[in-house]
Amino acid sequence: MTKRTAFAADDAIIAAAAAVTSQPGRRFTSYPPARARGGCRLAPAAAARQATDDPGAAGSWPELVVPRHADFDDWMEKHPSALAAFESVLAAAKGKKIVMFLDYDGTLSPIVRDPDSAVMSEEMRDAVRGVAEHFPTAIVSGRCRDKVFNFVKLAELYYAGSHGMDIKGPTAQSKHTKAKAGAVLCQPARAFLPVIEEVYRALTASTAPIPGATVENNKFCLSVHFRCVQEEKWRALEEQVRSVLKEYPDLRLTKGRKVLEIRPSIKWDKGNALQFLLESLGFAGSNSVFPIYIGDDSTDEDAFKVLRNLGQGIGILVSKIPKETRASYSLREPSEVEEFLRKLVSWSKESRQRD
Q1: Domain total for the chain?
Q2: Range of the domain at 202
Q3: Across residues 230-245, what is the average pLDDT?
Q4: CB-CB contact of 291 with 274 (8 Å)
Q5: Which of 70, 148, 184, 322 could form a disulfide with 75 if both were Cys (CB 3.0 to 4.6 A apart)?
Q6: What is the DSSP letter of 328?
Q7: 1 assigned to some structural domain
Q8: What is the Cα–Cα distance from 53 to 302, expressed in whole angstroms?
């Protein structure tokens, strides 16, 4: 029997948001959008993406597909290093307020076999702390918000967990804080919590026979990790997951880097979280803001796409290999992310001294 949950209040909000299609060059003039349950406003959502337009579509296996840009030099010409092109980044940001958005896994910490061991270095923490002293800064992760906070341990940041479906303001006041310290700002999928918990139990049981498979409960979404699963068992694992999800049509499946992601089927992703946070910071309708989003996974493409459509800010993909991406720039690994953040801080300090 198919298990469909009624989300009447949320459905009305999502439907209203989905009626608006994002357009290239669009600013924040339509804000404030409809307020969702949990205190957040739903940003205008783009029309449903076709599978061929989604780097995270469930029909392909990331890290197994040969990149379309086989020529690395050609790819780097299209997505130059944000370090090598640092002066170009500064020129684009001149006279504007930088707002920093950072993914966690693969961006601030290395990708590791055990998700619970993805600890960021003290040097990276110091770099992020420095950025937050100069610019409003948010961590946008697929992880549970509380879990990513326990990794980062910086109270002055905004945290958007569960792919942006659980957003909380800083627990420590700073000059960048617009909301009440520690306030939960946005939980558009709160009504899905019971079904997420039910599916978590079902997936944990159904994937138990597959060695190396782990199911992570990220509160508003689930992650089935297969980095430690033998490659010949990947398809069997996906079949087990799909078998469970057949009973839950209100959930959708996407793929990331050695992970299957299960999320509520609502028009909300990291791109929506980026727009919501910009509004929360007081940049609704502003042309003087310069968002910088750094991420490594297919789910970060939603944020890169928003920046492209807005015609504001830049996306930076963290990757050692050519990938199809909407990001403008690239960095190879977390160590380069740290270097980029430190260069931004140094530039900001020098600018203040000149002023």
Answers
A1: 2
A2: 191-264
A3: 96
A4: yes
A5: 322
A6: S
A7: no
A8: 11
d(CA 157, CA 159): 6
- CATH number of 247's domain: 3.30.70.1020
Write down the mean pLDDT value for the chain: 83
Supply φ then ψ for residue 56, to 5 degrees. Answer: -105, 15
User: Residue 63: phi, psi to the nearest 5?
Assistant: 75, -5
Question: Has residue 28 been placed in a domain?
Answer: no
Which candidate, 260, 339, 340, 254, places its Cα nearest to that of 301?
A: 254
Specify whether 292 is located in the same domain as 159: yes
113-122: long-range contacts, CB 8 A cutoff, minimum separation 24: 113/227, 113/228, 114/228, 115/214, 115/216, 115/223, 115/225, 118/151, 119/151, 120/151, 120/152
Mean pLDDT along residues 208-226: 96
β partners of residue 289: 97
**In this structure, are 128 and 246 located in the same domain?**
no
Total length of the chain: 355
70 and 125 fall within a common domain: yes
pLDDT at 206: 96
**Does the active-site annotation cover 126?**
no
The catalytically annotated residue of 103, 250, 296, 302 is 103
